């Protein structure tokens, strides 16, 4: 069974919320990314979303854009990220999804990428700029290799498209909390809770909510109505704040913040 399927099956039985942590691979370098992921696992994170740095990340806010630029400057490539996942799989059992824009995947070769990702131990693919209607070239090989294809539902998604997204997705559905780009926010839309409740009635997959969630309080709030909670920009911001410090200090400080988020999801 795919690790995301297993994660949400376990969470359903325990009536808990899965905490997904996003970091940009290679920010500030791949060795630090590996240390962070291993630390996150020890602190109770349930799944990792590993960003593939790209020069034109149109869905991302300034924090993740800057993280991507640092990673590219450090020489991070898709091939090196797959090698990192393979190293992690010697001891890490967390579900890992690659979050990549379509351009790097197309350049690598779609079918080749799916095969290499599956061989490395990747469990899912999230492609923000690829809609399900145009994703057949990705979905077919991913189904053969049991790699989840995770698509987005936004606040503006029409009911008729919800079924298309549900039918094209595996693992879980990524629910965008707000319109616009990624980034930590102090408040989330008050209508988000009701929106997620309605989506549960028209979808068959777990719903994980992301964009704007940045504190233990918002994690707990979303955990009341979502199967999973995703935090990205707030984690990348913590990495940026500690770049000048020794790597051990950076990992400890970022890990401490992530641990508090993880505890909130379990609560």
Structure description:
By secondary structure, the chain is of the alpha/beta class. It has one domain: TIM Barrel (Alpha-Beta Barrel). 50% of the residues lie in helices and 13% in strands. The protein has twelve helices and nine strands. The chain has helices spanning 3-14, 30-42, 62-73, 78-88, 102-108, 110-120, 136-144, 159-168, 192-202, 216-223, 233-241, 247-266, and strands spanning 18-24, 47-51, 96-99, 124-126, 148-150, 152-153, 173-176, 207-210, 228-231. Strands 5-4-3-2-1-9-8-7-6 form a nine-stranded parallel beta sheet. Strand 1 (18-24), helix 2 (30-42) and strand 2 form a beta-alpha-beta unit. Helix 2 (30-42) runs parallel beside helix 12 (247-266), helix 6 runs parallel beside helix 7 (136-144) and helix 10 runs parallel beside helix 12. It is globular. Mean pLDDT is 92; it is low at 179-185.
Spans where pLDDT lies below 50 across 5 or more residues: 179-185
What would you call the structural class?
alpha/beta
Tell me, what is the CATH class? Alpha Beta
What would CATH call the architecture? Alpha-Beta Barrel
Return Rg in Å. Answer: 17 Å
Per DSSP E runs of 2 or more residues, the count of β-strands stands at 9
Fraction of residues in helices? 40-55%
Strand order of the largest sheet: 5-4-3-2-1-9-8-7-6
Beta-strand content bin: 5-15%
C-alpha end-to-end distance: 27 Å
The total domain count is: 1
Q: Give me the number of helical elements.
A: 12
The CATH topology, please? TIM Barrel
CATH level-4 homologous superfamily: Aldolase class I
Largest sheet: 9 strands, parallel
The ordered string of helix (H) and strand (E) elements is: HEHEHHEHHEHEEHEHEHEHH
Approximate shape: globular
Q: Mean of the pLDDT scores?
A: 92
